[in-house]
Structure formats: structure tokens, C-alpha cells
Batch of 2 targets.
Target 1
Amino acid sequence: MDRCALGNHSRLCVPCGAPDRLGGLNVEEHLVAATAEDVRVVLEGRITAYTAAAIWQSAFETLANNPDRPIMVDASRLQYVDNVGIALLFDLGRQERRPGAEIRLLALAPNLAAVLRRYEPKDFATRASTRTHVGVLEELGRATSGQLLYLKELTRFLRRCIGALRVTRSRPHSVNWGDVLDVATETGANAVPIVLLMGFLMGVIIAFEVGLVARQFGAVIFVVNGVGVAILRELGGLMTAIVLAGRTGAAFAAQIGTQKVNEELNAICTFGLDPIEFLVLPRLLAALLVVPLLATLADIAGLVGGALVMTTFNISFLQFYTRLLSAVTAGDFALGVLKAAVFGLTIAAVGCHRGLQTGAGATSVGLSATSAVVTSIVLIIVIDGLFAVLTS
Amino acid sequence: MQDNKAQPVISVRNLRMGYGTHILLEEASFDVHRQEILVILGGSGSGKSSLMKNLIGLYVPMAGDILIDGDSLVRAGADERARLQRKLGVMYQSGAMFGSLNVLENVRFPLDRFTNLTLEERNLTARMALRAVEMGQAEALMPAELSGGMLKRAGIARAMALGCDILLLDEPSAGLDPITAANVDQMILSLRMNLNLTFVVVTHELQSIFGIADRAIMLDPESRRIIADDAPTALRDHSADARVRRFFNREPDAIWAQLSR
């Protein structure tokens, strides 16, 4: 005599949504009269999302323990079933069993029966789709081809940007200079404090580190040459560009990306406006304008920081100044500023391009911002290397 | 479910809500009864969606109280509030599907978080919920690949996945084609009949209102009060308030009526 039942103690009709709903209900086996041939499973009380797990498990244990006997599922004492409970009833009903060992649902409320009739077991026969995982090699291949494709697209985009810049020269009134000024304020003026701080600290650190080594050889005065050349030719522009890649490149990508997600870009296109001219060009011009200026500020702050540190190595401001004038040329400064302008264009172009490439949804805006920063920093370093080779 | 019909599932008492100094609604009191379909009406900007956000505890009202099954949502602590909120299934206007999860994972999300069902059981429940809103074919798609109507239906599936018996729907049929909108209406009626669910629906689709609503309350932005609370047909035919009758009879402002003559 194998007898089995599922259910819970709560014989009272519990209003749905009552506090006990979250607590779960005790499910235990207790004896119910049954014949030797069939197994009776009694479902009682409330089956909800919070209580279904245990009932589901013991129901299927009963099924597994009695593979050759018919199962009678008695639903007459059910008080409340939510959609998880319905899934449980459906799951019981759709089990394939040996002939003579079928499952029968008894005394199901008509409304529940109506719901269950709407589902066909065959509709759920396929496995729920899971994410496919790709192998390392495939991942590598995809990433490489993705990067190559991106470079190609970026080149095409840059060509369009240069075309738009040419238009600016022939028709300057077609540019919205108010926009350019707004972007320049946000990108340039608001970035002055961080650029000054960064430039100053950079000068301090370089002068100090190099000074310590040079002192051992009695060559402290040459530190001025090193600091001057390093800051004016390389670091002023480079560090400014890296700060702006994080600050401005990401902002451009996020702004334009959100506009794309909100279909603002489509609206611009339907007005017959070119998004490149309307959104990208002001940003390019603003970056071209402010990044060299910011780099100049970083240069000045760096030299001041270096000069301050050199006083601790017994090099006075006047000595620093005269030595600096003999060590660097206007060409060094000009090269640094020229590089900064190219970096600025790169940051703005990459940021805007990543923004325009944004797919749909919040995730893709985040991805655009991230990749704008990473891509522009990589490109900045590559361009800096090219400059170093060309000007050596 | 016959018992406790007397106690409203949602009870709003002297609610005042708004933003900063801007008050949208004052002295609002109404009840939502079990298995009822209540529609919240009002012109654009009358605070329908804000009222719904108050009902689900996203905004805190300026004054008054909101009771869910007799428990105050306003005075509740963080844990109690979360418990009360889990009783409510909410569909947001745009569907609010999580962009990084596919449709099935979106619907399964509350089950993953709050139940100890196995993955297969959760998958089956979520797929049945999707099937109930005729979204079975779209389970593997990402939200970005769905149309507006599909997003709404997936939103309804996610709202009901956790077995919530009170569903709040923000404009479920706005922007849908007439057939899909009618299907959504039928789905709401069938869920109410078969699963004994209670619905609070924000909408201004007249056909949908007459099709599904047991009762309608109407918000008025000028007087900042609830100016109607009755069955929609009664409001259309017998309301003492001209604004209410005009709303239900879709009458334009007098100036347009004159111009088109």
C-alpha cells in the first residue's frame, strides 16, 4: 500500500496576498485513502510563486517513485493558484508516462481547466533558448574582424568629417557657432582646473625624479633641459589629450548615443539635416579650438611645477628661465601644440563616431562611452609615436 | 477567493501628491476591490502616471495614505515596503524591459530572484506567461529587437510572472494597432476571470475603457480632484460633470466645434 499526498496544513482559506504568502507553506506527506493500484496526490491550499518549489519537487518525486502506477492528482482542495501553480499543474499534466500509468487531474476548477487548455505541451517541447557560448578562437576571430571593420568605418567617417570641415571654410555661416561655443565652454573652460592640476603635478614629479638621479652626477642644471623638452614636446599635449579622452570623448559618445537611442538622430535626418554637420562638426571645431589652448596651459603649469621643484636643487627661478630659453625652441612648443590639435580632433571624431554607432538600449550607450575612451587613447598614443618618428 | 472581498486590495486615503510646490492631486480617496478592473482616466498631464507611481510606492505622497491589503505603503519601513511592492505587478508605459537580458530572461527575472524553483520550472513558468500574452515566438529576442506592442506584452508577462494578483498597467494599449489592442483587452479580461487578478489600468483609449473597466476614476488637473468615480457607461450617460461627459463622448473644445462648422 503506497499512499502519498501533497498539501499543506492551512485548511483555512487564506486571502491571497496575506502576509503568510511570503513565508511559504509546509508541505508534508500524510495519509489519504487510496487504492493499491493508483497513487493519489492531493494538492491543497495555496500554490504560489513562493510555495510552489517544494510542492513541485515532492510531486515529481512521487511520480518518479511510481513509474508503473496511474497517478490521480486531486485538485479539489486547492484554494488559490497563481501562474506558477498553473505551470506546475501543466507540468504534471504533460508528463509522458507508460501506458496504464497516466496522470489524471481530478476536480480541477473550471476556470483553471480553461487556462490549462490554452497551453499545448508541444509548444514547450523545445528547450528554452539559452545563450550560446563561443570558443576562444571564434571570439578572437570575431574581435579581430570587428576591429578591422571599425577602422575601415572610422576612416570613412573621418573622410566625411574632413569634407564637412572643408564646407566650413567655404561657407562659415552654415556652422552653428553658438553650438561650437557651448561645446567649447564645456570641453575647454570647464576642464581648465583639472588640466592645470595635472600639468603642475606632472612638472613636479618629472623634475623631482630626474633631479634625484642627475644630482648624483652633478648634472642638476641639465634637468631643466629634460623637463622643458619633455613637457613642451610630449607630455603637455599627451596628458591633456588623455584627460580629455576620458572627460570629453566619453561625454560626446554618451550624448550622441542617447540621442540616437531616443530617435533624435532620425528626427534630425528627417528634417533633411546632416547629423555630421549638425552634431559632429560643432564638436570637432570646439575640440580643435580648445585642446591646443588647454595643452598650452598644461605646459605652463608643468614648467612652473618643475621650476618650483628645481629650487630645492639650488636652481633659482632665474637660472631655470635662462637655461630653459637655451634648451628649447619655439619649434618644440609649436610641435606640442600641433600634436594637441590633432589629438583633439581624434578625441572628438572617435567620441562622435562611437556615439553615432550606438545600437539600441541603455547598455549600448555605456559600451559606446567606454569604447570611445579606449579607442581615442590608443589612437592618441599611435599618433604620438608617428609624430616622434616623423620629427626625429 | 470569495472571502475578504469586503476589504479593498488597494485603498487610497486623502492622498495629496505632486512635485515640489506643484500639486497635482488633493484629497483623493478611492478603493480598488478584488477582481475589479479600475481605470484611471484624465487628460494628458493630469497626473495619471504619477498617481500610479504613488500607488506602487515609487513616489512618496505629500499627505494621505495608501493601503495595500490593509497595510500602509506610506508608513512602511524599507523591508515592509519591498514586501508590499512584490504583491504588485507593474507594466510601465514603455515596457521597461532590461536591455541586457533577452525576453525570456526578463520574464524569468523576478522568479530567479524571489523563488527557489529550479531553472526548468522557472523557464516553464516564464514561457507560459509569454505564451499567455502571445509572445511565445519572441522569447529569445533582445528587447531592442521588439516593437512597441511586443514590449508592452512582454512587460505584462513580466509583471504577472511572480504570481502577483494585483496588476498595474500604464497605458497597455496606447500605440498598439486595433487588433493587438483588442487582444490586450481580452487578455486582461481572461486573466481576471481565470486567475482572479485585480487590475488598475491607466489609459485613455475609450474603446478599451468601455471594453474592460468595471469602474473608472477621472483626474482633473484644474481642480486637482477626482471628478468622477463610477462605471464608464454611467459616467458617459449620466455624469453631472460636463467635462466627464465630454471626455467619454470625445467632444472637442467649443472653439474647434465652431471652426469646423
Target 2
Amino acid sequence: MAAGKSPKIELRGVKKRFGPKVVLDGIDLTLDAGSSLVIIGGSGTGKSVTIKCILGILTPDEGRIFVDGIDVTHARGRTRDAMLKKFGMLFQAAALFDSLPVWENVAFGLIQGRGVGRKKAREIAIEKLAKVGLGADVAQLSPAELSGGMQKRVGLARAIAADPEIIFFDEPTTGLDPIMADVINDLIVSTVKDLGVTTLSITHDMASARKISSRIAMLYAGKIIWDGPTSQIDQSGNPYVDQFIHGRAEGPIKMEVRR
Amino acid sequence: MNIFAPIGRVFLAFLAETGRLSLFTFSAVTHIVRAPIYWRMMWQQTLRIGYFSLPVVGLTAFFTGGALALQIYVGSNRFGVESVVPNIVVLGITRELGPVIAGLMVAGRVAAAIAAELGTMRVTEQIDALTTLSTNPMKYLVVPRLVASVITLPLLVLVADAIGVFGGYVVSTQSLGFNGATYIKNTVDFVTNGDVSSGVIKAAVFGFVIALMGCYNGFHSRGGAQGVGAATTNAVVSSSILILAANYFLTSVLFQR
């Protein structure tokens, strides 16, 4: 790889605010190729905003974002298309296109984004569905006919369909029962291992975070307050991290409860 | 309390909204000519916006033409000039009522459907998902609807014109005692290309307004079911108002005397 030296993704001093509310207040983060980072943090701390900034769905107010050493902060047109082709994403509620059958959902990026023929794309879709443990009989169904866990699997199949280099997981286990959550975690771990991709996940499910990550970063008040290997999360020595991973109501993090 | 503060706030919000809409329009229009073009989506939308609006537009045009004939008959009867009924019916339908009725009906049907569909896609992150699948939502969602609407609305108006005139014909011959052949001859002799084409031009503009307001409101809907509901309402209300306003300005430009 020519860009082997530069990290896969790098964020430098990224700031984003909506009106008077500062959501990201100078985020610095690097992801090396092949690593699995999980960003943890409470609801509304800007985890999703971080991901949307990297994808260019939102534009940061300040700071720079690099993918493979290329500045993509304000990328448009072809640069942006080329950048987006490296990504796959699993959305929180799967975000499947309900107007299309399952196989077309999985094949969507191939057909629309890369101009693969429909017949070929269908074969690839069925192959990817098999990878997430779904049979060919599911391919013809509409997403509305599937359970939440199956929708997540289809979403995962869609995220890996075009062989991305980087996969984002947005709350992969939210809304699933504990067993299905673990099944999804296993699927994530095995697909990541098979494909050798770089992953960035956001979650507040600690069991999931421990399982699918090699590194954890905690986002609080718009900043990364802790960043280290997953194995050291219990010895972080950071009261914010401790409060979060043990899920205590008492501690330095005060939940904003409006009167 | 400073009474100017809320006035200023409303004014600033209005300016911001206008700016957002202008940027959205500019982006949508420039994406029309840039590859890739999603022909399949365009065809699908042409069917949904144009073909499936035919019954609604046809029925309203028929009854409007009929009511128009009745009213003109009542009015002209007082002066003993009932013979103008076919002339005024065809003029009224092709110049004003055809495009406006078709525009408003399609606004209710299509702008609402577009806003609800895209709004739901927005709040369920399906629009963001498009981006992550290397597909530009502007090109994939907005352009096909815009193009389909601009192309099909003029065609719908031509149909509405024909059915509206037919509605007037049915009422005039069946209950007002007109001779069928004379009625048709008067209609055909009187109507000019300018009457019909002015309505078609209006229709194209209305088509643009309908799809644009549907897409814009859908794209910017926030916060779940309530947000989608608000977007749908806004799409119908704003496109209806813009259609009537645009109709006035187009009439004053097209029929300058």
C-alpha cells in the first residue's frame, strides 16, 4: 500500500456545533489500518455526529479529517465518491430501503454505486446474505417482513456487500435481545476478521464494546476524554470512564435532567 | 420586553428558510444534467406522478367543465348571448382552470406523497444510507421526481383540457339544449394554440413547484412521525400557495396586453 504509513482515518481538532449547542469541541482521533475502535459515550454526546462528519454527511465547523492521508473535510464530486467507496455502514435501525426487496438492499451499492449488472449483483447479494447466516429464501422478502435481528443482519450484509475497507457500526446491538445482540457481535467479529477491515463503532452497550473492539475511546462533553486498549478499560483511572462502564447514576457525569 | 426581538427572529428565520430553499433548488437543478442518471427511477416516478394522477385530474376536470358551462349559461342568458358558452368554456379551461385544477390536485396527491416518503426515509436514516452506498440522494431521489413531475404535468393538463371541455359539452348538450356539432365547431374554431400552450407552460412550472416542495420538505423533516406529518402538511400548503401565486404572475406575463 502506498499510503501504508498514514493512518486509515485521522481527525484533527474537529469541531461542530448546532446553533448555540457545541456538540464536538475539538476531536482528535486516529485509526490505524486493521484496527477496531469503539467510541463510547452517553446519548447525545456527539458519537453519531462524529461518524457523519467523517462520511461528509455533516461538515465540521473547524478541524480536518483525513482518510488514507487525503484531506476529505470538504471533499466534493469525484474525490468524495472515491472516498465513500471505501466505506460501509451498519445503521442503528438498519435503515433498509423498504421499497426494495432484501436482495436489492444488499446489492444496492453494487448496482447503483458501481454499475454491476442486476443478475451478477443478485448472486453476490445471496452470497453475502449467507455470510451473515441468512438463506436465499430471505432474499425475495421485503424488509418489513423481517424481525429486528434479521434486519440488522441484512444491514450488515449490505455494509459488506461492496467489500469496503472501513466499516462503521452505529449502535449495532441497540434494540435487540441479549442473545441476538451477542449473535450480531459474533458476526461483526468474524466478518471483520475475514475481511481484514478497519472498523469504527459507536455504542453504549459495554458488553458489545468489549467484544468487538481492540481500542476504546470515550467521548464526553465534545472531547475524547480517554483512549486506550480495550484490555485496559477497567484500569483507566478515569472517574468518567469508570462511571460509564459500570453504569452508575452517581459520579462526575451529571445527566441533564430538565425541570 | 422588546417587541422588535420576536419580529426580527421571525424575519431571520424566514431569510434562513429562503436561503436553504434556494440552495436546495440550485443543487437539485444542477444535478439534473450530471451523471449518473437513474432512468429506472425516472420511469417509476413518471408512472406514479403522471399516470396514477389521471383519474383524479380527469374527474375534477370533468365536473369543473360542467359547472363552468352552467354558470356561463346563467350569466350569458341574461344578455341573450348563450352562444358564447363553448367559447368561454374552452378559454377558461385551457388558460386557467385546466392547469390550476390539475396543479392543485396533483399538489395534494403527489407533493404529500413525496414529502411523506422522503421524510420517512430521512428520519429512518435511509437517506444517509444512500450516501454510504455511493449513491447521491439528490440524484437518486430528487432529480427523478423533479424531472417526472415537470414532464408529466403538462401532459396531465392536456388531458384535463380535453376532459374539461368535454364536461362542458356534456352539460351544454344534455341539459342546456345546445347542438352538439355546433358546440364542437365553436370550440375548435375559437381556441388558439396560444391558449393551450400557455396552460402547458404553466403546468410545467407547477410540476416543478410540486416536486420541489415535496422533496424539500421531505428532505428537511425532523424528529419522527410528527416531523413527517408536519413536512407533508407544509409540502401541500406551500406548493398550493406557490401554484396560485405563480399562476397569477404567469398569467400577467403570458397575456400581456
